[in-house]
Write a structure and sequence with these properties.
This protein is of the alpha/beta class. The chain is 31% helix and 23% strand. The protein binds adenosine-5'-triphosphate and magnesium ion.
Protein backbone atom coordinates (compact mmCIF):
# COMPACT_ATOMS: atom_id res chain seq x y z
CA UNK A 1 0.00 0.00 0.00
CA UNK A 2 2.82 2.41 0.85
CA UNK A 3 4.12 2.16 -2.71
CA UNK A 4 0.74 2.85 -4.28
CA UNK A 5 0.20 6.16 -6.05
CA UNK A 6 -1.72 8.44 -3.69
CA UNK A 7 -1.74 11.74 -5.57
CA UNK A 8 -1.70 12.09 -9.31
CA UNK A 9 -1.88 15.00 -11.74
CA UNK A 10 -2.15 14.34 -15.47
CA UNK A 11 -1.91 17.17 -17.96
CA UNK A 12 -3.14 19.73 -15.43
CA UNK A 13 -3.43 23.33 -16.64
CA UNK A 14 -4.92 26.38 -14.97
CA UNK A 15 -5.73 29.89 -16.17
CA UNK A 16 -6.50 32.70 -13.70
CA UNK A 17 -7.80 36.10 -14.78
CA UNK A 18 -7.13 35.18 -18.42
CA UNK A 19 -3.47 34.36 -17.77
CA UNK A 20 -2.02 30.85 -17.87
CA UNK A 21 -0.68 29.98 -14.41
CA UNK A 22 -0.07 26.24 -14.67
CA UNK A 23 0.90 24.49 -17.87
CA UNK A 24 0.33 20.75 -18.33
CA UNK A 25 1.74 19.41 -15.08
CA UNK A 26 2.09 15.66 -14.67
CA UNK A 27 3.13 14.18 -11.36
CA UNK A 28 2.54 11.22 -9.11
CA UNK A 29 3.30 10.86 -5.41
CA UNK A 30 3.44 7.56 -3.57
CA UNK A 31 1.57 7.27 -0.31
CA UNK A 32 3.76 8.73 2.43
CA UNK A 33 6.16 10.43 0.02
CA UNK A 34 7.31 14.02 0.56
CA UNK A 35 7.38 16.15 -2.59
CA UNK A 36 8.91 19.59 -2.31
CA UNK A 37 7.92 22.18 -4.89
CA UNK A 38 10.60 24.78 -5.55
CA UNK A 39 10.18 27.60 -8.02
CA UNK A 40 10.55 31.33 -8.66
CA UNK A 41 8.24 33.87 -7.01
CA UNK A 42 4.82 34.09 -8.58
CA UNK A 43 5.24 30.99 -10.73
CA UNK A 44 2.06 29.25 -9.56
CA UNK A 45 3.06 27.23 -6.47
CA UNK A 46 0.16 28.30 -4.25
CA UNK A 47 -2.23 27.77 -7.15
CA UNK A 48 -0.89 24.24 -7.54
CA UNK A 49 -1.59 23.48 -3.86
CA UNK A 50 -5.07 24.94 -4.15
CA UNK A 51 -5.77 22.65 -7.10
CA UNK A 52 -4.56 19.61 -5.14
CA UNK A 53 -6.69 20.67 -2.16
CA UNK A 54 -9.76 20.83 -4.40
CA UNK A 55 -10.13 24.58 -3.75
CA UNK A 56 -9.63 25.36 -7.45
CA UNK A 57 -10.61 23.29 -10.49
CA UNK A 58 -8.18 22.81 -13.38
CA UNK A 59 -9.06 24.07 -16.87
CA UNK A 60 -7.59 20.91 -18.34
CA UNK A 61 -6.28 17.60 -17.07
CA UNK A 62 -7.16 15.41 -14.14
CA UNK A 63 -6.20 15.33 -10.46
CA UNK A 64 -6.84 12.37 -8.21
CA UNK A 65 -6.23 11.84 -4.50
CA UNK A 66 -6.61 8.20 -3.47
CA UNK A 67 -8.21 7.58 -6.84
CA UNK A 68 -10.92 10.25 -6.64
CA UNK A 69 -11.24 13.94 -7.49
CA UNK A 70 -9.94 16.05 -4.58
CA UNK A 71 -12.48 17.52 -2.19
CA UNK A 72 -11.67 19.86 0.71
CA UNK A 73 -12.18 17.97 3.96
CA UNK A 74 -10.51 16.27 6.90
CA UNK A 75 -8.45 13.90 4.70
CA UNK A 76 -6.44 16.88 3.41
CA UNK A 77 -4.84 19.51 5.64
CA UNK A 78 -3.24 22.77 4.57
CA UNK A 79 -0.67 24.89 6.42
CA UNK A 80 -0.04 28.44 5.26
CA UNK A 81 2.79 30.93 5.58
CA UNK A 82 0.69 33.04 7.92
CA UNK A 83 -0.41 30.87 10.81
CA UNK A 84 -4.08 31.77 10.46
CA UNK A 85 -4.86 31.07 14.10
CA UNK A 86 -8.11 32.45 15.43
CA UNK A 87 -7.00 35.18 17.86
CA UNK A 88 -10.17 34.94 19.96
CA UNK A 89 -9.69 31.24 20.65
CA UNK A 90 -7.15 29.60 22.95
CA UNK A 91 -4.49 27.25 21.61
CA UNK A 92 -6.65 24.27 22.59
CA UNK A 93 -9.73 25.71 20.87
CA UNK A 94 -7.77 26.55 17.72
CA UNK A 95 -6.70 22.91 17.38
CA UNK A 96 -10.14 21.56 18.35
CA UNK A 97 -11.59 23.69 15.55
CA UNK A 98 -10.03 21.27 13.03
CA UNK A 99 -11.93 18.35 14.56
CA UNK A 100 -15.63 19.13 14.14
CA UNK A 101 -16.28 15.50 13.15
CA UNK A 102 -15.22 14.07 16.52
CA UNK A 103 -17.25 13.75 19.69
CA UNK A 104 -16.35 15.91 22.68
CA UNK A 105 -14.26 13.37 24.57
CA UNK A 106 -12.32 12.08 21.56
CA UNK A 107 -11.71 15.62 20.37
CA UNK A 108 -10.31 16.69 23.69
CA UNK A 109 -8.01 13.65 23.91
CA UNK A 110 -6.77 14.22 20.36
CA UNK A 111 -6.04 17.89 21.05
CA UNK A 112 -4.05 17.01 24.18
CA UNK A 113 -2.07 14.42 22.25
CA UNK A 114 -1.07 16.63 19.29
CA UNK A 115 -0.23 19.58 21.54
CA UNK A 116 2.06 17.28 23.52
CA UNK A 117 3.61 16.04 20.26
CA UNK A 118 4.55 19.58 19.22
CA UNK A 119 5.77 20.41 22.72
CA UNK A 120 2.97 22.84 23.60
CA UNK A 121 1.12 20.84 26.23
CA UNK A 122 1.73 23.56 28.80
CA UNK A 123 0.32 26.25 26.51
CA UNK A 124 -3.04 24.65 25.76
CA UNK A 125 -4.92 27.45 27.52
CA UNK A 126 -2.77 30.31 26.25
CA UNK A 127 -3.93 32.82 23.63
CA UNK A 128 -2.17 32.99 20.27
CA UNK A 129 -0.91 36.51 21.05
CA UNK A 130 1.00 35.14 24.05
CA UNK A 131 3.11 32.84 21.83
CA UNK A 132 6.22 33.50 19.76
CA UNK A 133 6.04 33.12 15.98
CA UNK A 134 7.65 29.70 16.16
CA UNK A 135 5.15 28.54 18.78
CA UNK A 136 2.22 29.88 16.74
CA UNK A 137 3.46 27.93 13.75
CA UNK A 138 3.68 24.82 15.92
CA UNK A 139 0.01 25.34 16.85
CA UNK A 140 -0.78 25.63 13.13
CA UNK A 141 1.12 22.37 12.54
CA UNK A 142 -0.72 20.69 15.42
CA UNK A 143 -4.03 21.87 13.97
CA UNK A 144 -3.08 20.43 10.55
CA UNK A 145 -1.96 17.09 12.00
CA UNK A 146 -4.84 16.70 14.48
CA UNK A 147 -7.32 15.21 11.96
CA UNK A 148 -4.61 12.70 10.95
CA UNK A 149 -4.76 13.80 7.31
CA UNK A 150 -3.66 11.47 4.53
CA UNK A 151 -2.42 14.43 2.53
CA UNK A 152 -0.63 17.40 4.07
CA UNK A 153 -0.22 20.51 1.87
CA UNK A 154 2.22 23.12 3.16
CA UNK A 155 2.63 26.53 1.55
CA UNK A 156 5.91 28.07 2.72
CA UNK A 157 4.89 27.33 6.31
CA UNK A 158 8.23 28.31 7.85
CA UNK A 159 9.04 31.34 5.70
CA UNK A 160 8.15 33.86 8.40
CA UNK A 161 10.27 32.21 11.11
CA UNK A 162 13.74 33.22 12.22
CA UNK A 163 16.56 30.97 10.99
CA UNK A 164 16.83 28.97 14.23
CA UNK A 165 13.11 28.33 14.64
CA UNK A 166 12.95 27.39 11.00
CA UNK A 167 15.55 24.62 11.32
CA UNK A 168 13.89 23.35 14.49
CA UNK A 169 10.50 23.27 12.76
CA UNK A 170 11.96 21.35 9.83
CA UNK A 171 13.24 18.73 12.26
CA UNK A 172 9.87 18.73 14.03
CA UNK A 173 8.03 18.15 10.76
CA UNK A 174 10.38 15.30 9.84
CA UNK A 175 9.82 13.72 13.24
CA UNK A 176 6.03 14.12 13.19
CA UNK A 177 5.43 12.93 9.63
CA UNK A 178 8.26 10.46 9.14
CA UNK A 179 7.07 7.58 11.27
CA UNK A 180 6.12 5.04 8.62
CA UNK A 181 2.37 5.74 8.57
CA UNK A 182 2.81 9.47 7.96
CA UNK A 183 0.86 11.51 5.42
CA UNK A 184 1.82 12.21 1.84
CA UNK A 185 3.28 15.72 1.92
CA UNK A 186 3.46 18.42 -0.75
CA UNK A 187 5.61 21.22 0.62
CA UNK A 188 6.19 24.53 -1.18
CA UNK A 189 9.29 26.56 -0.41
CA UNK A 190 11.64 29.18 -1.81
CA UNK A 191 14.52 27.70 0.18
CA UNK A 192 16.84 25.27 -1.61
CA UNK A 193 18.23 24.00 1.71
CA UNK A 194 14.78 23.40 3.13
CA UNK A 195 13.82 21.50 -0.03
CA UNK A 196 16.83 19.21 0.25
CA UNK A 197 16.33 18.58 3.97
CA UNK A 198 12.68 17.57 3.64
CA UNK A 199 12.19 16.03 0.22
CA UNK A 200 12.06 12.56 -1.19
CA UNK A 201 11.80 14.37 -4.49
CA UNK A 202 12.20 18.03 -5.44
CA UNK A 203 10.03 19.33 -8.27
CA UNK A 204 11.56 22.39 -9.84
CA UNK A 205 9.04 24.69 -11.51
CA UNK A 206 9.58 27.21 -14.31
CA UNK A 207 8.50 30.85 -14.07
CA UNK A 208 4.78 31.35 -14.74
CA UNK A 209 3.09 29.48 -16.27
CA UNK A 210 4.51 26.75 -14.06
CA UNK A 211 5.84 23.65 -15.76
CA UNK A 212 7.95 20.97 -14.10
CA UNK A 213 11.44 21.51 -15.45
CA UNK A 214 13.17 18.95 -13.26
CA UNK A 215 12.38 16.15 -10.82
CA UNK A 216 15.29 15.53 -8.52
CA UNK A 217 15.27 12.45 -6.25
CA UNK A 218 16.79 13.22 -2.83
CA UNK A 219 18.11 10.09 -1.20
CA UNK A 220 19.82 11.29 1.99
CA UNK A 221 19.25 8.71 4.71
CA UNK A 222 16.30 8.97 7.07
CA UNK A 223 15.39 9.69 9.79
CA UNK A 224 16.78 13.08 8.88
CA UNK A 225 15.98 14.69 12.23
CA UNK A 226 18.76 12.45 13.50
CA UNK A 227 21.07 12.52 10.46
CA UNK A 228 21.16 16.13 9.30
CA UNK A 229 21.44 16.01 5.50
CA UNK A 230 23.21 19.39 5.52
CA UNK A 231 26.24 17.46 6.74
CA UNK A 232 25.86 14.61 4.23
CA UNK A 233 28.24 14.17 1.32
CA UNK A 234 26.57 15.40 -1.83
CA UNK A 235 24.43 18.08 -0.16
CA UNK A 236 26.55 20.97 -1.42
CA UNK A 237 26.51 19.66 -4.98
CA UNK A 238 22.73 19.26 -5.06
CA UNK A 239 22.34 22.68 -3.52
CA UNK A 240 24.57 24.27 -6.15
CA UNK A 241 22.79 22.44 -8.94
CA UNK A 242 19.34 23.66 -7.87
CA UNK A 243 20.58 27.21 -7.28
CA UNK A 244 22.21 27.33 -10.72
CA UNK A 245 18.97 26.24 -12.36
CA UNK A 246 16.85 28.68 -10.35
CA UNK A 247 19.20 31.56 -11.02
CA UNK A 248 19.29 30.80 -14.75
CA UNK A 249 15.49 30.73 -14.91
CA UNK A 250 15.03 33.96 -12.97
CA UNK A 251 17.67 35.80 -14.96
CA UNK A 252 16.25 34.70 -18.31
CA UNK A 253 12.65 35.48 -17.29
CA UNK A 254 11.60 38.70 -19.06
CA UNK A 255 9.22 39.46 -16.17
CA UNK A 256 11.95 39.32 -13.53
CA UNK A 257 13.47 42.45 -11.98
CA UNK A 258 16.65 40.75 -10.83
CA UNK A 259 20.13 41.76 -11.85
CA UNK A 260 21.11 40.23 -15.15
CA UNK A 261 24.89 40.28 -14.73
CA UNK A 262 25.66 43.17 -17.05
CA UNK A 263 23.21 42.48 -19.87
CA UNK A 264 21.06 45.40 -20.86
N1 LIG B 1 -7.35 34.94 -8.39
C1 LIG B 1 -6.41 35.29 -9.29
N2 LIG B 1 -6.73 35.99 -10.40
C2 LIG B 1 -5.79 36.34 -11.31
N3 LIG B 1 -4.48 36.01 -11.19
C3 LIG B 1 -4.11 35.31 -10.10
C4 LIG B 1 -5.04 34.91 -9.10
N4 LIG B 1 -4.37 34.23 -8.14
C5 LIG B 1 -3.08 34.20 -8.54
N5 LIG B 1 -2.92 34.85 -9.70
C6 LIG B 1 -1.66 35.01 -10.46
O1 LIG B 1 -1.19 33.71 -10.72
C7 LIG B 1 0.22 33.66 -10.62
C8 LIG B 1 0.64 32.56 -9.67
O2 LIG B 1 0.19 32.87 -8.35
P1 LIG B 1 0.57 31.95 -7.14
O3 LIG B 1 0.10 32.61 -5.91
O4 LIG B 1 0.10 30.57 -7.41
O5 LIG B 1 2.16 31.96 -7.24
P2 LIG B 1 3.24 31.51 -6.19
O6 LIG B 1 4.26 30.72 -6.95
O7 LIG B 1 2.61 30.87 -5.02
O8 LIG B 1 3.86 32.92 -5.77
P3 LIG B 1 4.75 33.29 -4.45
O9 LIG B 1 6.09 32.70 -4.72
O10 LIG B 1 4.78 34.77 -4.46
O11 LIG B 1 4.04 32.71 -3.28
C9 LIG B 1 0.67 35.03 -10.18
O12 LIG B 1 1.15 35.72 -11.31
C10 LIG B 1 -0.58 35.68 -9.64
O13 LIG B 1 -0.55 37.06 -9.89
MG1 LIG C 1 2.60 31.34 -3.00
Amino acid sequence: MRDAVHLSLAGVSLTLGGRPVIDRIDLAARRGETLVVLGPSGCGKTSLLRLIAGLLAPDAGRITVAGAAPVPGVATAMVFQSYRLLPWKTVRANVAFALPHLGERERSARVDRVLAQVGLGRFADAWPRELSGGMQQRVALARALAPEPELLLMDEPFAALDAQSRELMQAELLRLTGGGAGPTVVFVTHSVDEALVLADRVLLLSPRPARIVEELPVTFPRPRWQHDPREAPGFAELRRHLWDRLRAMVVSDPNSDFYRGGES
